[in-house]
Structures are given as structure tokens and as C-alpha cells.
């Protein structure tokens, strides 16, 4: 889903930084609390850096997934104040242009599009201060119960950790990606009817959300990286869009399963499932997915 983006109004002078979780800190996100119910507002920023590079060392818009997931949710809560706790059920990202180089500050502008007693849908754009749009995003959200006190305490403890040199790493390292396919200079992938084993992602409590599950933005990043790894010739393709469905909370080590559904010369479609990984996967004959995703790639410009 895409939508037109009007020129944003001047940033409100009443913006105040919002308390950040560890996942937001690792992706260099700054959040602002939405002030107007349903209005399109500047709801956050991020700064690109080594954490914005994919496994091939290229800048990737996947690194904006954490910011966009958060700001879409904030737009819903500003429009429906009684929805105290919400979770993402669907996130769609459309990548308009190549992601900018390290050291660029980008802004998220978001607004609620539809809200009811169960949740709602919001839209956002990620752009530079001059109004050049890099990503359009749409998210669906659903109300849930509050998190436990123990989870909240751990969330705050993790948020107090420093951002040392060990966090100045590419995105795949940040989300603990292990394994994958051969380097991205190979043959065109084969179309398959069944899912194949993809990369794994090590358990990392720093990627948790306030409910104690893996952050939806982190799961989106894992889905996009896993889809890339399914294409041995991925160096010649850019991510065009990514649609992620969140089926249930994710935790522990995570494994990706991928299926190349279309492998044309200029267009690729890759399906991804994220399931329990590590030692957990051996105990499950057919693990239920946490996430189902569809990634579309186009020939690189």
C-alpha cells in the first residue's frame, strides 16, 4: 500500500524526547510523543551509520523498521487514548529510493488512518528534512493487556546500558544473524514449492519490547535480511517492498525459512517464515511461525 505525502508542516516546538528502549537505542532512534489526535506529525528521527548496512555492506532501509514500527503505533495511541497497550499485527514498508549514506538524519512523519475499539491502522513516511521520501509505511495494530512489572523492570535496565564501540556494527550483526547462503555474487535462485532453511538469529534480550517479546521492528529486519540471503545474486537487486504479518510473540533464538516464489530477471518475490531456532527447534516437529513475510526485490538502479 502506498499513499501520497503532503509537504510536512514545521516541526512543533513542544516536541519532547520519549523514553527509549534498548532496540531503539541500537538503531539510533529518537522518539517524540504524538500530541494531536489523528494529525500527521513528526514523531521521531534516526541517524544512519554502520548499523544501517546490510550483510553485503550496502545501506538498507530495513534499519528504519524499528523507528517506523514505533511511530506508527504512537499515531494510533494519540488517536485512541483508551488503547493503552497495543501490538503490531501487520507492517508494510515500501522503499522508494536507495537509502542514504552514514551520518544522515531522517525524520518519521505519521498519522492514524483508521481507529476502532480493537486497534487501528496508521501511515508514515521516512524522509530527510528537505522532504525527500525514502520509505512509505503502513501498520495495523491491536490492543492487548499491560506487560508485567518484571518485564518493565528488565526493559528499563537494558535501556540504561551504554552505546559502546561494540554497537557500531552492521545490521546483521546487531540482530545476531548467523549463517545464510553463499556470498551475493552467484547464480539466479531456483523457484521452490517448499521452504528452505535460512539464517538463524541468536537470542538477544536487548531486542525485546516492553511486553518482553522480540521487538516487531527487529523481526522485520530479520525477515528482510533472510529474504536477501535466499538470493545468491542479491547484489544486483534492491528491496522494493516488505510485508510482515506478526502471528504471535517471538522469543529466544529464531530461525528463518525462505522460499523463492518468483525469480525473474528484474523482479523477485521471496516468502519468509520466522520460527523457533537453536535448541528449541529440535523439540518441535513442525514449529509454528512467529512471523510470515513477503519481500519483493527489483533490479538495482
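Q: What amino acid sequence fits the structure above?
A:
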Amino acid at each position: 500500500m502506498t499513499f501520497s505525502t503532503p509537504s510536512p508542516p514545521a516541526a512543533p516546538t513542544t516536541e519532547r524526547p520519549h523514553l527509549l528502549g534498548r532496540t531503539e537505542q541500537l538503531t539510533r532512534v529518537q522518539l517524540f510523543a504524538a500530541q494531536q489526535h489523528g494529525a500527521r506529525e513528526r514523531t521521531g528521527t534516526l541517524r544512519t551509520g554502520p548499523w544501517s548496512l546490510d550483510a553485503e555492506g550496502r545501506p538498507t532501509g530495513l534499519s528504519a523498521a524499528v523507528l517506523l514500527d514505533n511511530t506508527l503505533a504512537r499515531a494510533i495511541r494519540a488517536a485512541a487514548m483508551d488503547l493503552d497497550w497495543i501490538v503490531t499485527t501487520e507492517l508494510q514498508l515500501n522503499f522508494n529510493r536507495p537509502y542514504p549514506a552514514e551520518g544522515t538524519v531522517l525524520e518519521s512523519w505519521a498519522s492514524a488512518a483508521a481507529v476502532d475499539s480493537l486497534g487501528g491502522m496508521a501511515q508514515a513516511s521516512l524522509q530527510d528534512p528537505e522532504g525527500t521520501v525514502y520509505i512509505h509505511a503502513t501498520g495495523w495494530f491491536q490492543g492487548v493487556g499491560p506487560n508485567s512489572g518484571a518485564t518493565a523492570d528488565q526493559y528499563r535496565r537494558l535501556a540504561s546500558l551504554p552505546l559502546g564501540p561494540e554497537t557500531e556494527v552492521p545490521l546483521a550483526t546487531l540482530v545476531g544473524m548467523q549463517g545464510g547462503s553463499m556470498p551475493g555474487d552467484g547464480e539466479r535462485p531456483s523457484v521452490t514449492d517448499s521452504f528452505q532453511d535460512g539464517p538463524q538469529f541468536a537470542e538477544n534480550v536487548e531486542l525485546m519490547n516492553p511486553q518482553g517479546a522480540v521487538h516487531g521492528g527487529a523481526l522485520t529486519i530479520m525477515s528482510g535480511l533472510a529474504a536477501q540471503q535466499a538470493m545468491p545474486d542479491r547484489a544486483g537487486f534492491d528491496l522494493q517492498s516488505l510485508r510482515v504479518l506478526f502471528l504471535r510473540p517471538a522469543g529466544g533464538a529464531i530461525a528463518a525459512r525462505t522460499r523463492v516464489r518468483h525469480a525473474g530477471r528484474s523482479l523477485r518475490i521471496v516468502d519468509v517464515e520466522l520460527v523457533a531456532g537453536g535448541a528449541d527447534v529440535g523439540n518441535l516437529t513442525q514449529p509454528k511461525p512467529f512471523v510470515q513475510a513477503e519481500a519483493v526485490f527489483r533490479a538495482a538502479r
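Q: And what stands out in the fold?
A: Confidence is low (pLDDT under 50) at residues 1-14.
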